[in-house]
């Protein structure tokens, strides 16, 4: 089997959930995913994407499985061809205040609302949500929590790519504002280099205080 044939077969598997829902009469199916639950710094960010029925781009996959260059290429295609998409983000101060689970759900909800507004402006409305590994309350939209959805569902995988690229760019911008933590490389995650920098310099304004309390002996 050639590489293209493998990618075609992979695409067929990824799109099964959407095809089943379309068979049941639904048209506007949204995929939702987040990035940034685990880092020591930066926001948690979510994306919601509604793809057209005829969307076809080989190579879509869980963002973590793709190279940076490939993610950026696919993110541009997804943004361009999506019927609608939305981004939600919750900043470190809010994460510290309400905890990471609630912050993640808030980011997802904001992303869904932004996507639905864009879709309504174009004459549609989200009819069903496919959410990566999580359920959201009080949305009034039917939904499925899909375990490992970013590697099994096309819409969720697409959302994971857009979210990852968006957050990485934010962290690269923070690297310029707050140099010395390696945000351009670690994207806020707790690498050895990052932890050592924290011990030497202390936290900057985009660090999550609730996440760095146990690093070394300093009381943050």
Topology:
Blueprint: H1 3-14, H2 16-23, E1 29-35, E2 44-50, H3 68-81, E3 84-90, H4 92-98, H5 100-121, E4 128-132, E5 143-146, H6 154-177, H7 183-186, H8 192-201
Parallel strand pairs: 1-4, 4-5
Antiparallel strand pairs: 1-2, 2-3
Helix pairs in contact: 3-6, 4-5
What does it look like?
With 220 residues, this protein is of the alpha/beta class. The chain has one domain (3-167): Ribonuclease H-like superfamily/Ribonuclease H (Nucleotidyltransferase, domain 5). It contains eight helices and five strands; from the N terminus they run H-H-E-E-H-E-H-H-E-E-H-H-H. It has helices spanning 3-14, 16-23, 68-81, 92-98, 100-121, 154-177, 183-186, 192-201, and strands spanning 29-35, 44-50, 84-90, 128-132, 143-146. A five-stranded mixed sheet has the order 3-2-1-4-5. Strand 1 and strand 2 form a beta hairpin. Helix 3 crosses helix 6 (154-177) and helix 4 (92-98) packs across helix 5 (100-121). 43% of the residues are buried. The mean pLDDT is 96.
């Amino acid at each position: 089997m050639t590489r293209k044939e493998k990618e075609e077969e992979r695409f067929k598997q990824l799109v099964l959930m959407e095809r089943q829902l379309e068979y049941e009469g639904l048209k506007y199916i949204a995929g939702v995913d987040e990035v940034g639950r685990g880092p020591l710094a930066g926001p948690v960010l979510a994306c919601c994407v509604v793809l057209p029925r005829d969307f076809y781009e080989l190579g879509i996959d869980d963002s973590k499985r793709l190279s940076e260059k490939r993610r950026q290429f696919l993110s541009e295609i997804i943004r361009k061809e999506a019927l609608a998409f939305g981004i939600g983000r919750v900043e470190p101060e809010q994460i510290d205040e309400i905890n990471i689970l609630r912050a993640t759900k808030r980011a997802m909800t904001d992303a869904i609302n932004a996507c639905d507004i864009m879709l309504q402006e174009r004459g549609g409305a989200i009819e069903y949500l496919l959410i990566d590994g999580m359920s959201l309350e009080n949305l009034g939209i039917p939904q499925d929590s899909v375990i490992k959805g970013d590697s099994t569902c096309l819409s969720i995988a697409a959302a994971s790519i857009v979210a990852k690229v968006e957050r990485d760019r934010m962290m690269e911008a923070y690297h310029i504002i707050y140099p010395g933590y390696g945000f351009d490389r670690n994207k806020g995650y707790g690498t050895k280099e990052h932890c050592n920098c924290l011990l030497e310099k202390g936290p900057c304004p985009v660090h999550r205080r609730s996440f760095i309390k146990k690093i070394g002996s300093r009381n943050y």
